[in-house]
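Moderator note: this is an archived Q&A kept for reference. The question asked for a predicted structure of one protein chain; the sequence and the answer are reproduced below.
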Amino acid sequence: MKYKLLLLITILLAACTESNDLSTTDDVNPSSSSPNILLIIADDLGKDAANGFSEGSIKPSTPNIDAIRNTGLSFTNFWSYPTCSPTRASILTGKYGYRTGVKWASDEINISEKSLQQYINEETNDKYATAIVGKWHLSGNSSTFNPEVMGIDYYAGLIRGEAQSYYNWLLTEDGAGTIETEYATTKFTDIATQWIDQQEKPWFLWLAYNAPHTPFHVPPSEMHSQGNLAPFSSGMDETPYYMAAIEAMDYQIGQLLENMTEAERNNTIIIFIGDNGTPNEVVQSPFNFSTAKGSLHQGGINVPMFISGNGVMRSGIDENLITSSDLFSTIAQVAGVSSSEINDSKSFKNLLSQSETIRNFQYSEKDDGTNSIWVISDGNYKLFKNANGNEEFYHLSNDPYEQVNLLNGTLSPTENSAKATLESQLSIIRN
């Protein structure tokens, strides 16, 4: 069944890439400029745990995610933030974390911020139905916050960052919470499917799975290939449980797509991302405990992004420097908004149909209450600056996993020039 489903998705998504080139128009009214938009966010999924990347030796079986990647674009230089909340805030607002105050997990978004969903509908005369299903994690420890106050038509999911159990968790809908015992990944998919079925106009669905975030657990057996796993307890090998959660998410993505009509699938663009790097407990070489989730090293912020479906006319690997905030303008343009830049966000919609350079520099940051650090890269060199004055400087082209801090030696004239340029751009970004 899994391989039949893979074949079905591959055929359908391939068909999508042969029609409806979105790059030819920014008009609001024509139906061809109104594709459905499906943004899927996997929680704690780094390159080392995703197929299509050389990092990591243990990979999950993910035929549905692989089909999205194989029939569209794989972005190798996509930067998120090192934890989930700031990545989500950057997509929601198109702003860097220091502007919104969301720079670490559990930081709270100010409800005065204009959300992507609100922006789209203000600019397109309410052309789109919008929903967020799944993890929110932008309201601290609140269990009753309703994201709909930020201009989102519908929200249902887990408001807090982590479920106590994937089989015993608090589902929030319309600002009210109820205890849910259905496997969380399945429940999110069911809610998303039902919402899609109810729509009568183009839709934008932000589907944020908690998987494969902790707690480590055993998904329903039909959803994974990790064998007969015992209930997880401390001291056990976490990796098969982590892989099982990824596979269960993939299974449910397949269920969601299979439940859509052929016409709806053909009119849908799919964006799949990881929100930050792999958790420290299960990180794989060439990354390590200190360069994975929570870190501004590549293992913490250089995460998967695959885009396929309606309007995606290219396939293969794209090496553009992209940041998570860029999804704001990109999704807005796909929805028919004419502007290609807003706040800190630059649209890369053109890359879906043609090769060009979008950014010359990319930026990320963290402030965990102890360390305030910023990073900037031109794709060749990468500079870390700490608020306390400490710096690190790496030549990514020669040292992609940041093993040699160039500041421990004498910089060459070329390196000095590159560092000065990055410092200048960092000053501009943080102005």
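Archived answer notes: The mean pLDDT is 93.
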